From TrEMBL:
Main subcellular location: membrane
Keywords: Cell inner membrane, Cell membrane, Chaperone, Lipid degradation, Lipid metabolism, Membrane, Transmembrane, Transmembrane helix
Transmembrane regions listed in the UniProt entry: 7-24
InterPro entries linked to this entry: Lipase_chaperone
Keyword Lipid metabolism: yes
GO CC list: plasma membrane
Superkingdom to which the source organism belongs: Bacteria
Single GO MF descriptor: unfolded protein binding
Keyword Lyase appears in the UniProt entry: no
Protein name per its UniProtKB record: Lipase chaperone
Length: 289
């Protein structure tokens, strides 16, 4: 259910590229950050770029941490961090809103959405926002999201009513030209993310050249470095989980000794800043097993 509530917000806007290219801007102090962070977030910093980002940062741990515990963590963070982005009343409104989203989950299910369902969902979300927030809060928390979702609906309407693909493209580009810069960047980023995700069948050299064409030499080098780092971590994690399973399956070793051996294995396999993240991934892996 928690995953479905996240899908509701995510599928509604052209936000794949927009969210994928938003670099986190953080100002939380380490002491207060520990109050709101889940174990898997320990190697990140609290996102205080806006009230919405701070709330979403905290609630992204849902599934790893129970919802009531997240609420308590955010309340403690508000009290100790001195942040001006949130207060208890806004937190309470956001909690109510997140729970109410469950009522719209049926509309958001499925791989694709028709125009009618997209419009129903848009109207439902606007109604929920008006139920829990003031107009000023709606503008601050959901303004960009609502506009992006509205644009997604307009794009769908154009696609369904245009004479042909060329007519649809011309209408969409004309509408896009009238929008603020962040809307245009969102569309560009969405197209870029789609292009990047469609090159996995290429060879390593072909993929690099494709990245150069899309984001330039420097961008391609950064993407390559990220891919290498991610692949190395995934390989280390897979090997670690295999060895950990062997330790857990050894019936001749007591529980305390198993915990000690696993802790030593974790410290040998990963950098200190990754330990808490790995421990959290262990728990997630155990729940899936």
């Amino acid at each position: 259910m928690a995953k479905r509530s996240k899908v509701i917000v995510g599928v509604l806007a052209i936000v794949i590229g927009w969210a994928g290219y938003q670099w986190i801007q953080q100002t939380g102090t380490p002491a207060s950050a520990n109050l709101v962070q889940a174990p898997s977030q320990q190697d990140t910093e609290v996102d205080e770029s806006s009230s919405r980002e701070l709330l979403e940062y905290a609630y992204s741990a849902q599934g790893e941490i129970a919802l009531p515990d997240i609420e308590q963590r955010v309340e403690a963070y508000i009290e100790h961090s001195g942040t001006s982005l949130l207060d208890q009343s806004l937190l309470a409104a956001f909690i109510g809103y997140k729970k109410a989203l469950m009522g719209l989950e049926e509309l958001a299910m499925g791989q694709s959405m028709g125009l009618d369902k997209m419009e129903q969902l848009h109207i439902g979300l606007l109604a929920l926002q008006q139920q829990y927030f003031t107009p000023e809060q709606i503008a601050a928390l959901f303004g960009d999201e609502n506009r992006l979702r509205s644009m997604a609906i307009e794009k769908k309407r154009i696609e369904e009513n245009a004479l042909d693909a060329q007519d649809a493209e011309e209408q969409w580009m004309a509408l896009l030209a009238e929008q603020p810069g962040y809307i245009r960047r969102s569309e560009q980023n969405a197209q870029l993310m789609a292009a990047l995700s469609n090159d996995q069948q290429l060879s390593q050299q072909e993929r690099y050249l494709h990245h150069v064409a899309l984001v330039g030499e420097a961008g391609a080098q950064r993407l390559e470095a990220v891919e290498v780092e991610r692949a190395a971590f995934e390989a280390s994690l897979a090997d670690y989980l295999t060895q950990r399973s062997v330790i857990l399956a050894d019936e001749q070793v007591g529980e305390e000794m198993k915990e000690l051996q696993i802790e030593q294995l974790r410290q040998q396999s990963f950098e200190p800043k990754q330990w808490k993240r790995v421990a959290a991934l262990e728990r997630i892996n155990d729940r899936r097993s």
